[in-house]
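Input chain follows. Return structure tokens only.
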Amino acid sequence: MGGGDRLVAYGIQGFGWYVRRSKDSPANVIPFYQAALGLRQLRPPGPGGVIMLWTGDIGMFEINVLVPPAESIARKDDITLVMRARNYERAKAMMLAAGAKLANEESATRTAYFIDPFGFTTGVREANDASTWPHDRAAAATWRAGGVAIPDTPALPPELQDIAAIVVKVVDPVAMAAFYSDLFGFEMLDKPSAKGAMLAFGRTVVLELKPGGRLQGIPPDRNQVPDTWIVRLYDHDAFAERAKQKNVRVVNVISLAGGKLTYAVDPEGHLFGFEQRTPDLLAEGGKERVEDALARRLWAEDSR
């Protein structure tokens, strides 16, 4: 389930965090995602009211605060989180009951996209255990084995398993697929075309590039971008040097309690991040977060 030899060689585990920044207080936003998707809050709010939700595997959903200049709103539908549903019809009903509105539905992939009460797009996709793609095979194997558990955290409701996809609207799917494959080592699952591209994101997640995006200006700070995704890796500094050699534009470099995080933009201006969270970066006496301990354990298993 490690996602391929190139990911392992670059120290990349795969998808780690999805950050959604809203003008509304995280405390007001979180009840929707708890009701609509059954996501579990891991701990009390952090600095600035940040709330971390567990999404069923090593992926986390972070609810944070948006600093909203006018151009921020134009980015709101560029990146979409899609959850994997084990009971597709029931998952759709949960979204509607929580107050979301159905935006559109793709019959080929059995994916429904909803607009939540805060104006964000979120999707649910039916699990496909017959698929031969690595992320679907990994999800099926994990489900058969009883799923992934985090200590002292309830499992997700049986209708939902984990994150299935990060969907990014781009201007040029072919060029963007080449960029992400070259930088991160993501495996291309199909031949990229003007209609889109699919790349393996590691473990159970796929990065899906769709046409319909627009070129973005480089944001002055990650707090001004509503949605973004972050890769979990295990040698931040080496990867930062790799990104520098490829002329990747950096937006923020952040030191965290127990981690290092860089936000950057792709050639079209879409924000993404890469983060390391390991015990050696903790202050003396610091305690590792349960999700980071889980991810490290699974990384060791997947990398064998």
